[in-house]
Amino acid sequence: MSERKKINIGLMGLGVIGSGVARVLIGKADAIAQQVGCPVILKRAVDCDISKKKSSQIPARIFTADPYQLLHDPEIDIVIEVIGGDTDALEYMKEALSRGKHVVTANKEAISKHGPELLSLAADHKVGIRHEASVGGGIPIISPFKQDLLANKVSAIRAIINGTTNYIVTRMATENADFATVLKQAQELGYAEANPANDIEGVDAVYKLAILATLAFRTAIYPEDIYREGISRLGSRDFRYAKELGYAIKLLAIAKEENHYVQVRVHPALIPEDQLLAKVDGVFNAIEVEGDLTGKVIFYGRGAGPQPTSSAIVADVIQIAQNIKLGLPPKPQPQPSRIKNLTTTSQIVTRYYMRLTIADRPNVLAQIAKVLGDNLISIASAIQKEADESAQTAEIVLMTHLAQESAVQQAIREIEALPVVKEIGNLIRVED
Amino acid sequence: MSERKKINIGLMGLGVIGSGVARVLIGKADAIAQQVGCPVILKRAVDCDISKKKSSQIPARIFTADPYQLLHDPEIDIVIEVIGGDTDALEYMKEALSRGKHVVTANKEAISKHGPELLSLAADHKVGIRHEASVGGGIPIISPFKQDLLANKVSAIRAIINGTTNYIVTRMATENADFATVLKQAQELGYAEANPANDIEGVDAVYKLAILATLAFRTAIYPEDIYREGISRLGSRDFRYAKELGYAIKLLAIAKEENHYVQVRVHPALIPEDQLLAKVDGVFNAIEVEGDLTGKVIFYGRGAGPQPTSSAIVADVIQIAQNIKLGLPPKPQPQPSRIKNLTTTSQIVTRYYMRLTIADRPNVLAQIAKVLGDNLISIASAIQKEADESAQTAEIVLMTHLAQESAVQQAIREIEALPVVKEIGNLIRVED
Lengths: 432, 432
What we know:
The structure is a homodimer. The first copy, chain A, is an alpha/beta fold.
């Protein structure tokens, strides 16, 4: 085997992330070369939008608008894919792997939907595919699952893995502001996209959770397996009541395994405010992993942005480049297959927070309590609040003990049908 | 190269940690074999204390009291060293490496004092030495520095890396209890050793910080390079005052690099209570790393105990075993040498908390303020507390703006000499 004199990189996508990666590869070229043992050259960068040639500030001579000029270049060793999505980007990654190029990607959508296929293609062509940047930005989390936590049987993941929604819920909690107002400000500040559905409806968190759960439980979990509920129904009063009860509200990504059954869900949740996860504010992310040996371990940091994401991508590049330089093959990745069962949403057992608008008259709580009792749900605490005298209504907040989701949904239907109940304000699961 | 049918482990040390490691290797043998691709056998376990043959619950046939029966066994591939200390344990590790055996160790003292020598010996014999368990127990931290954070220039580490002292300061803070009382209870509960000096004087934290700083700054840092101050001088009143000022007090391990100058120190520090590190309580550890790309990343979890430590040790074993099974050489480790300068303690610039007992009469604060001003130290806030009428003394707490350590030490000497000052109660650095 001839000694490698340099390693060539092809970068696909020159948006905010791609430009950031290019800056790091160029700006830190000396430090990277030192770690790898030879220069790591950004040889080619592609974006179908020709304006990126200028705006991304890469050297003009390496720019191309033709992806295949990069993919068909036999000198390119590693392809960095930061286009995103599961259409073109997926096709390019497959093409790169098929041509014996290693792939580094931040693409949570493609990895969560097509991870096993990509891993298998990489194995067939004896190359590696790495995606540390797909979850948690600059927070090391993929690699710990593949290495440091190997000796553990993981029983649970609880994660705040979407910075946009965490920014919004943090501001709703601290400023008593409503969802629409905070979302608008988040958009103005660039923390939320013009079309924010992917974040606020929990889709982004679902992709990331699918990736984490697949690694943690060593069974293939796909986005469609995951129960999903976004944050748009949260009212500022929910944050007030939660605080009064000693809780924060976060959009949580939860994955648990019990007796070979895996449950995976993304939804707003009340978290006791003395837990560290409750204190993860603003655009920060945190992933809590519970292993049988480690107990709870938490990884915390910036989950997005060009610099943290570049940190993860370039670390992946350096590690692949080190192996190329040493003539070592990529480490074989286990091919996840579906070997465990999924718990359906109706089987979830947890505690619940319910906010109801009721007629302000005697015995209403008794009627509600009876419905809950008939469904084997017991009340842990109840607070009645803020009677609206003109409307002759009051608001009541209930916290239940552990109850099964199906029973709670049945009870909610029955409660909604009670003449004394004006509205089900919200139903939020509690993560103790 | 012939296909490996099994990989043999030798375990040195059958104390609490060693027994825990044996339990995991035996109890999880199937899961480990699946990850490695062949059985990983605990072939031999050694402890010079023959009573451990029984108390450790290992199969009696694998026990020996003779280290060399293990070290000279050509069939043993990986030696796990959990004896600790830098005498026998160090010798055994060298012997193992010299005989071409891979080493996995939790030994922070030996690694911090002799890391470069051990790495070099391992490289000479084409074997690996791994020590994830040497810092942070079950928290992945060594491996992130070697891999996931590679693209970063690390500017700072701030860490709570000694569970015993964090347990003590947490209880002092929450119960308004004094140091001696809490230490005694911690000893009764097994959270502090009969001879607690290693923990409470910060020696253990110094070993761990030396390891982290060496990795982070890619320059050799030894325990004797690190300024050290333990927690025994902390009074319960310091926690009260700190809280009033909006701070927690923790034993912090701090390493910073600025302009190729590295400062490394372990001492109690005031941390603003809204920072996550201030909320790390009890026996938990947390390591905050600040990189130029990631920003602040925090790793949190249980830093000690047989199970978390086994998690790290067995993960190291699995990774070495995977490489052996695949016929891959261990990844080369950079040999740290001293390439950066150390900042002396007197050059540290930070903020300070001072607690003084003074004569309860007019103009005392003015005299103190003058000394501070003469030394170019300005006061950020001052509170005067709890006049003791019988003794005609009062207590005063000062928070300074940024000041240089040498100036502060000079000022303290001058303040102590003032007739109106009865006692310097405490001087604690602030980490904002």
